[in-house]
Specification:
With about 625 residues, the protein is mainly alpha-helical. The chain contains 27 helices and seven strands. Strands 4-3-5-7-6 form a five-stranded mixed β-sheet. It has a two-stranded antiparallel ribbon with strand order 1-2. Helix 15 runs antiparallel to helix 17. The chain is globular, with a radius of gyration of 26 Å.
Length: about 625
């Protein structure tokens, strides 16, 4: 009988996992189909739809597909060690390979497979904590089809305490109201690297650990250690948070479970194996800090430095949640389940410590990102806490509780099924967001088919660099700050040389680098004009000018006279196309918005490709 129930459960989980995968990919597939019927190109990942992915993560996966692992610098021949995590990019590169370089199909394939895997893992983790099939299905649907698994991370991102409360409350309510028909073309966990490619490793770590915690064995310790070690190659803040948890539990076992030597021994095996898996990570870190330009690179990522009260105060709005959750866990489990009590309270203590780790280390890369694993952990704890709290309510029968859970599950599913129909109609805003120029797409196709692999290309638009590194094997001369390990001075020099060769006037150069300038445009402006006119500063410097302080955030502080010095360097430049070491010049609509050069009259260049929007010249060596 138990075997029959287990088999039925397996097929249910499999069926719902596939359903979730379909719910993720059907909306963009319908949008794609509409563009095919209109005879227009479809580009899934672009700045108006998948900005962060296009800026950093997809180009790194493309780099692996082009034969470079680990992916380091997308623009530099000198491949220095990088702090960027290789594992998510490796996962994604498999789909690029599977679909022969088609990024649209690769991303849809990744969403289908990893969306399904995340659902199954949510189910297994929740079932491990509650032993309830219905509740586990309900909570898993909440995890993959709503933003609730990371809503705590969103807490504080909106301006004003009241606005945060209202926005979070309305977000939760809207997940259960099918008549709210806002088109959702990109479901909540579709973002890479985090959450689509990070959640599976972290959830697998939690699942393995919960099994070990209930019944520790050496084998189970090793099964925890393997994904724990892989977290180092997945996302910095996830492994920092997880090993803060392990450190707390180690102290607890050392002082309160001395008599249970086997549990302590298996825990030490867990740490040893995880450390062995993570060893190459730390070797790579030592190589990074030995590089002369390492501070430039880490500052562009965003590095908070220093110890003072503002470190604690920056996330003050998190502490009431921690206190409330800790009190609720204590009330629920003090008499009922001491193992859950110790485990969950250790997790909550780790949230506080990891959030303030900078006070110990004196530095922390992008401190706000630590809320990502914390948010997911709160969601997992909540699955058990809410279930166990509801079980204490005696005024409602078991049948009534089951009816409530099933009803809420149906509402969540129904909303996302209705969403497919809403997106399938492709409302005007989606046509606008996904519309992409023929000429640019055709130029990518020509580069992929007609020139040797990894051509060195120069343009004056950082927007072009982002698209070229994602959709072609090109290595642009003009580099973005987040995806390159080169020094800031080298980045700036390349930026100035590119703009000088394209004849960009001084005043336009300054305007492109001024985020405060009024560079907004109307709906009929050319695709991605906003990013081309107002985001060069962000693409080039990223977080460089807000790093080095105890708290990240706010306006960048530019040193006095910085732009004047940069302009003088710009005026003194006398570059030539040959000295760039590039082979091709790319002139598309974004370059033409600022360029004052007549390329047909430049004797150093020869036209090799042209369509209605893009011209590509070969540099005569």
């Amino acid at each position: 009988m138990a075997q029959k129930s287990s088999s039925r459960n397996f097929w249910l989980v499999s069926f719902f996992s596939i359903l979730v995968g379909l719910l993720y990919i059907l909306p963009p597939i319908f949008v794609w189909n509409t563009f095919v019927q209109r005879g227009e190109p479809f580009v899934l990942a672009q700045l108006s739809t998948y900005k962060d992915e296009l800026t950093v993560y997809l180009p790194r996966a493309r780099e692996i597909y082009d034969g470079h692992f680990p992916p380091a610098d997308l623009y530099f021949d000198d491949q220095k060690p990088t702090v960027m995590n290789p594992l998510p990019s490796l996962f994604f590169s498999f789909f690029i390979y599977l679909f022969d370089g088609n990024m649209n199909l690769a991303y849809l394939g990744a969403q289908f497979i990893f969306g399904s895997i995340i659902f199954a893992l949510f189910y297994l983790v929740t079932f491990q904590l509650t032993n309830s099939q219905r509740w586990s299905f309900f909570w898993s649907f909440l995890g993959v089809l709503t933003p609730l698994s990371f809503i705590f991370y969103r807490w504080g991102l909106d301006t004003g305490f009241v606005n945060n409360i209202v926005n979070i409350f309305t977000t939760i309510i809207k997940q259960f109201i099918p008549i709210v028909k806002t088109p959702i073309h990109k479901l909540y966990l579709a973002r890479v690297d985090d959450q689509l490619l990070t959640y599976p490793i972290f959830l697998l770590t939690l699942l393995s650990f919960f099994k070990w915690w209930r019944n520790p064995t050496i084998f189970k310790a090793i099964m925890v250690a393997l994904p724990s070690g892989l977290l180092f190659y997945t996302y910095f803040h996830y492994w920092v948070f997880w090993f803060t948890i392990l450190a707390i539990l180690f102290v607890y076992l050392l002082f309160f479970h001395k008599q249970n030597k086997f549990r302590l021994k298996s825990f030490l095996v867990l740490i040893a194996v995880a450390g062995a898996v993570a060893l190459p990570y730390f070797i790579n870190y030592l190589k990074i800090i030995s590089q002369p330009d390492s501070q430039d690179y880490t500052y562009r990522f965003g590095l908070a430095v220093g110890r003072n009260w503002s470190v604690i105060n920056q996330f003050w709005f998190h502490y009431p949640v921690y206190i409330f959750l800790a009190a609720l866990v204590f009330w629920l489990y003090w008499h009922k389940d001491r193992q859950k009590l110790i485990l969950f309270e250790s997790f909550i203590l780790a949230m506080i410590l990891a959030g303030n780790l900078q006070l110990i280390t004196g530095f922390m890369p992008v401190p706000g990102q630590i809320a990502k694993p914390i948010a997911l952990t709160i969601f997992i704890i909540a699955s058990a806490v809410i279930y166990d709290a509801l079980s204490l309510i005696k005024s409602y029968s078991m049948a009534s509780k089951r009816f409530l859970v099933v009803t809420l599950t149906v509402l969540v599913l129904l909303k996302k099924i209705i969403n497919i129909g809403v997106v399938a109609a492709v409302p005007p805003e989606l046509l606008h967001d996904y519309g992409f120029p023929h000429g640019i797409v055709n130029s990518w196709s020509w580069l992929n088919k007609s020139v040797p692999p990894e051509p060195k290309i120069i343009s004056s638009a950082l927007v072009s660099s982002l698209y070229l590194t994602t959709y072609t094997s090109a290595r642009p001369f003009l580099a973005t700050g987040f995806a390159s390990s080169m020094s800031l001075s080298t980045l700036e020099t390349r930026y100035l040389i590119s703009n000088k060769l394209f004849g960009v006037p001084n005043e336009i150069l300054l305007q492109k680098l001024d985020e405060k300038s009024n560079n907004s445009c109307l709906d009929d402006c050319y695709k991605d004009t906003f990013f081309n006119t107002a985001k060069d500063f962000r693409f080039l410097y990223v977080n460089y000018f807000i790093s080095g302080h105890p708290v990240l955030g706010g306006q960048a502080i530019i040193p006095a006279g910085y732009w004047e010095k940069l302009l003088k360097q710009y005026d003194d430049l006398n570059p030539s196309w040959q000295k760039t070491d590039a082979s091709y010049v790319y002139i598309g609509p974004w370059e033409k918005q600022f360029s004052r050069t007549d390329f047909d009259k430049t004797g150093e260049l020869g036209l090799v490709y042209k369509n209605s929007e893009v011209a590509i010249y070969k540099i005569n060596q």
